[in-house]
Structures are given as C-alpha cells and as structure tokens.
Specification:
The complex is a heterodimer.
Chain A: E1 4-7, E2 10-13, E3 19-25, E4 31-38, E5 42-51, E6 54-57, E7 64-70, E8 73-78, E9 87-94, H1 97-100, E10 103-104, E11 108-112
Parallel strand pairs in A: 2-11
Antiparallel strand pairs in A: 1-3, 3-8, 4-5, 4-9, 5-6, 7-8, 9-10, 9-11
Chain B: E1 4-7, E2 10-14, E3 19-25, E4 30-38, E5 44-51, E6 56-59, E7 62-67, E8 72-77, E9 86-94, E10 100-102, E11 106-111
Parallel strand pairs in B: 2-11
Antiparallel strand pairs in B: 1-3, 3-8, 4-5, 4-9, 6-7, 7-8, 9-10, 9-11
Classes of the chains: A mainly beta, B mainly beta.
Amino acid sequence: DAGITQSPRHKVTETGTPVTLRCHQTENHRYMYWYRQDPGHGLRLIHYSYGVKDTDKGEVSDGYSVSRSKTEDFLLTLESATSSQTSVYFCAISESWEDYGYTFGSGTRLTVV
Amino acid sequence: KQEVTQIPAALSVPEGENLVLNCSFTDSAIYNLQWFRQDPGKGLTSLLLIQSSQREQTSGRLNASLDKSSGRSTLYIAASQPGDSATYLCAVASSNTGKLIFGQGTTLQVKP
C-alpha cells in the first residue's frame, strides 16, 4: 500500500516472549492506528495515536503497548506474547479522518506458539 | 456502544448480476462511513467514503448510499465480475473520536 509499510510481514514467536511490530508511513499523516483481525470478531482497535507521543487505548488494548517517537513510526509491542494474540495485525493512517478516511497497511501475520 | 452489522455474511452470484450489500449501525452519531475491499490474505483497500452529510458516493460500477437517520448503508455493485470476488467491509467513524468500528464483512463470490 502506497506510503505505509508494516514489518515484519510474518512472524512466529514463542509464548512469553516480547514482540514488536512496526508501522512506517511516508505520508506525514497525523493519525495512526493498530487493529487486529480475527475470525468471528472482525477488525478491532488496539491503540491509536493522534500525534508524536500522543497515544490512547482502543477496545482490546490489554497486553499491548505502543510508542510513537516520530511522526512516521508507530510501534506495537506485545509485552509477553500469548496464544490469544495470534492474529493478523493491521496498521492504518489518516491525515484527516473526517475528510479522507483511512489507509491500511498490508498486515502482519503473527503466530504465537 | 456502536455496533455495525453486515448482511448477508456470504453471497454467491453469477457473473453480470447487479447486487446489494447491506450495512447497519446502531448509533447515528457518525462522522462518516467507509467501504473497504479485502482480498484473501491481503490488506484493506478503500472503495468509497461517505460523509455523514452526504447521501451517496459513486466510483465506477460501485455506488454507496447512506441513510444516517435509519442507521443504514448499502453498497451497490453493477454488472458483477469474477474479479469482484472478495470480502467487503463497512466501517463507521465515531463523531467524537473518529475511531473506526467495523462490521464483520460480506464475502462475495462471483461465478463466471
């Protein structure tokens, strides 16, 4: 997707280990979001950011933390990965969600074994 | 709490048919509604964005309507093609926070 990159694209990790997913944008958009997508639950908001060092929780934030030290990077950390965090994680960006909506990245498929 | 429902969950049609996908939401205090397409194993591609003050938006063979007062949106696909096969998601942005709330999607299969 133009202007937004997620890394890694795939990751397998063991239960109890910390994991960090990265979202990088080249659009200089103000807003950044982390979602997870699971069968039967759809897409759910984990955390979001409305500026550098300004973040807030979404509906499923337990077990996750985020950081945004630069406009272009939004990091999602699973502090101690659990099998319930096996999911596909999507990052989204928006300059003005009122006017332009959201653009999504291609996702990171995370498996916790 | 805003809830978004999409009906049907799955749909299979022959090529060339016109079809309608439905999206309903429980809280009319939305800023906008966005329709996305998701191909298997891929990310979300934005199709149409409708502001709360608008009634519809069109892009090619796609037309999306919004009736905020009744909490409904429809995505109309004209002359469907096998390449339209995908999952279609609708999402509403809360008036207060702009957070997107998603429906669970309609998986469309268009048969040649």
